[in-house]
Target: Beta-phosphoglucomutase
Amino acid sequence: MYDQYAALIFDMDGTLVDSGQLHEYAWTATLNKYGIPIDRPLMRSLAGVPTKGTIEILLEKFGITATASLDEMNDFKEQAVHDSMHLYVKPTALIDVAQRYHGKKPMAIGTGAYTEEANKILALCGLDKYIDVVVGADQVQNPKPAPDTFLRCAELLGIDPAQCVVFEDSKLGLQAAASAGMAGIDVLLVHAIENDYFL
Model:
């Protein structure tokens, strides 16, 4: 199905990994702790935005003066993810695509999560053996919807961006793929994979 591409790049959360409930749990705990309202449609629209960026958007949207530093709130959320990831994460149906092209085409993860967290989640899901490169938000200057994440994946794989296909579940991610000059696959439309994140 994707034979015409030289490399496959997957977003992680909501795309290759079913982790919607993990992040909903962690965000709910974080927002409740720091007195930030939970706007479910807004949270869903921010899927793929790194933690600090999401917090900044929420504080501005609700006109809230933070009671803690961005670093503290980020660390609280990341700790909640770390402590509970084993309870929630599993591969999506896209594992079939990863298995089909394993050993035939290089594959990367381009995620808004931090690299260390991504590596742990991929290992928990048994997906790490299929992935050659993991690029997290901590590796790029500008996260999605900027193209940096996917361009870094292509660079590390040694593949021309125009020869890469990106699998994404979010509008921001698909925008990043287009900006990188890559083909984008909306996994909900093409593979019926729905991210159960703040539905």
